[in-house]
Structure formats: structure tokens, C-alpha cells
TrEMBL record:
Name recorded for this polypeptide: ATP-binding cassette domain-containing protein
Source organism of the structure: Neoroseomonas eburnea
SUPFAM superfamilies given in the database record: P-loop containing nucleoside triphosphate hydrolases
PANTHER family: PROTEIN TRIGALACTOSYLDIACYLGLYCEROL 3, CHLOROPLASTIC
PROSITE patterns: ABC_TRANSPORTER_1, ABC_TRANSPORTER_2
Keywords associated with the record: ATP-binding, Nucleotide-binding, Transport
Pfam family, one: ABC_tran
Domain ABC transporter: 8-245
GO MF annotations in UniProt: ATP binding; ATP hydrolysis activity
Length: 258
């Protein structure tokens, strides 16, 4: 794959729900092997954007390319093969309480019969070690774990099938600042080890700077800025800097929401 082909390329991505236009021509390039953080106010369409890329929501218009391939034109089997290469860490972990941790970690591999149950136990232990958890955690129920441990297990599940794209939805939400930094460190480590492309949504600017190489700001249905995540708060773009610093005064007029 040539370096100048982005891992993910969005062009003119649009989506409305009824009268409400959420995405209004999103253009975004996400570099292979880099971390992209998507910023934007509540309800600005960050999750809808990611769901379009995952194939969970069909956009009304626009194109989505992954490795230069038009994903909206893929048949079901091609789409499934693509999804096998994508991992996802959900905001609340989204672990199944009815299954022990090891089955959660290897859920996808087991569901697709890509691994035996015996091999899955060993695989889970190996992946749990990568996120700093002992093999014995594999036998616990998710309900027995702290929030930080649940995030680690969610991260282990996201990487178990060795994806080359991983989405992180609010990875530090609900964690104390130190545990948030620990999880971010793990994310950076595992993404680097896999050589994966990481796409994250976060409202936590410290986290954005840690896990992002690049950042993009979604506002009024479009990407209004892209740049280095390290510069967040000092980008020179009044809109982005207001958002990153959490200032009430600035170009972003916050609507009061019910
Ligand atoms: N399936 C759906 N049907 C109708 N409206 C939807 C649907 N999914 C999302 N929306 C609307 O689209 C808008 C954008 O939602 P989205 O979840 O992408 O926001 P977000 O930027 O991720 O916000 P947050 O930071 O609060 O999670 C919201 O107004 C939401 O109500």
C-alpha cells in the first residue's frame, strides 16, 4: 500500500435523520498507522461518522474508502471480511456479563469459529497480559471487575483478532485521571505493536493529545479543522482552541439542549 493512500478517506459524507442534517459533507483523510482523534460537541455527529465507516449506518451521500477501496460498493462478504480487520473499544466496555472474561476477549474469534475453545483460553491469557492483566482474570465475570479493568478487557477484546484499524469511543470516560492516563498508555502501546490505525472519539483533551497524532474537529456537519493533536488548545483556530480549552466565550455558540 502506497504511503500517500490514506487508510480511511471520507468524501462528502452526508447523513440526515428526518429533518435533522447531522453530517453535511464530511471530508477526512486518516493516515495509515497513525492515531486520529475526532473532536466535536455533543450531538455533532462523531458517532454517526464512525458508524458509517463501520457499516452500521448507511450515509445518504458521499464516499468511504479504506485502503483505497470503496466500501459502500462492497458486497456482504467483502464487508464482513473488512469488518474482521476492524476492532472497536466501546464507551461502556460493552462486555457480556453472562460470559467469563476469556470468552469476552475471544468473542469474535469464537463466534466465527476461527479458534477452538481451548485455544481461545490461551489466546485470552496472552492478550490479557498485553493489557496488564493476569491470566486468572480470564475466569472472572465482567461484573466482578473495576471500571479500569473493564476498559482493559474491552481493549483486549478490541485487539484479540489483530485488527489493522481500531476505533476507540470515549476510552477514558468514567475513569479517574491516573487510570485514564494508564489506559491511554496501553492504547498507544497496543496500537503501535499492531501497527494499526487508531480512530478515537474523546472529550478528554489530555487523552486526545496522548493517543492522537492528528486531530479533526467536526462542527455543523463538516470537518472544519485538521492538524496535530499535540497543538490542541494552541492551534490558532479560535473554534478549536475554544473547544479544547473548554471556554464558554468564543465562536461556538452552545445551544441549550433539553
Ligand atoms: N439512529 C439515529 N436516529 C435518529 N437520530 C440519530 C441516530 N443516530 C444519531 N442521531 C442523531 O444524530 C446526532 C449526532 O449524534 P452522534 O451520536 O453522532 O453525536 P456525537 O457527536 O457522537 O455526540 P456525543 O459526544 O454526545 O456522544 C444527534 O442529534 C443524534 O440524536
Amino acid at each position: 500500500m502506497k504511503d500517500d493512500v490514506p487508510k480511511i478517506r471520507l468524501r462528502g459524507l452526508s447523513k440526515a435523520f428526518g429533518e435533522k442534517r447531522v453530517l453535511d459533507g464530511v471530508d477526512l483523510d486518516i493516515r495509515a498507522g497513525h492515531g486520529m482523534v475526532i473532536l466535536g460537541g455533543s450531538g455533532s455527529g462523531k458517532s454517526v461518522t464512525i458508524k458509517c465507516v463501520l457499516g452500521l449506518i448507511a450515509p445518504d451521500a458521499g464516499t468511504i474508502e479504506i485502503d483505497g477501496r470503496d466500501v459502500l460498493a462492497m458486497n456482504r462478504r467483502e464487508r464482513e471480511e473488512l469488518n474482521d480487520r476492524i476492532g472497536m473499544l466501546f464507551q461502556n466496555g460493552a462486555l457480556f456479563d453472562s460470559l467469563p472474561v476469556w470468552e469476552n476477549v475471544c468473542f469474535k474469534l469464537l463466534a466465527q469459529k476461527r479458534i477452538t475453545r481451548r485455544a481461545a483460553r490461551d489466546k485470552a491469557a496472552e492478550v490479557l497480559a498485553q493489557v496488564g492483566l493476569a491470566a486468572s482474570v480470564g475466569d472472572l465475570s465482567p461484573a466482578e471487575l473495576s471500571g479500569g479493568m473493564q476498559k482493559r478487557v474491552g481493549l483486549a477484546r478490541a485487539i484479540a483478532a489483530q485488527p489493522d484499524i481500531i476505533f476507540f469511543d470515549e476510552p477514558t470516560t468514567g475513569l479517574d485521571p491516573i487510570m485514564g492516563a494508564v489506559i491511554d498508555g496501553l492504547i498507544v502501546d497496543v496500537v503501535k505493536r499492531l501497527g494499526a490505525t487508531a480512530v478515537s472519539i474523546t472529550h478528554d483533551m489530555a487523552s486526545a493529545r496522548r493517543i492522537g497524532d492528528d486531530a479533526a474537529m467536526l462542527h455543523k456537519g463538516r470537518i472544519v479543522w485538521t492538524g496535530a493533536a499535540a497543538a490542541l488548545g494552541n492551534t490558532g483556530n479560535a473554534l478549536v482552541d475554544q473547544f479544547a480549552r473548554g471556554e464558554r466565550e468564543g465562536p461556538i455558540q452552545m445551544e441549550l439542549r433539553r
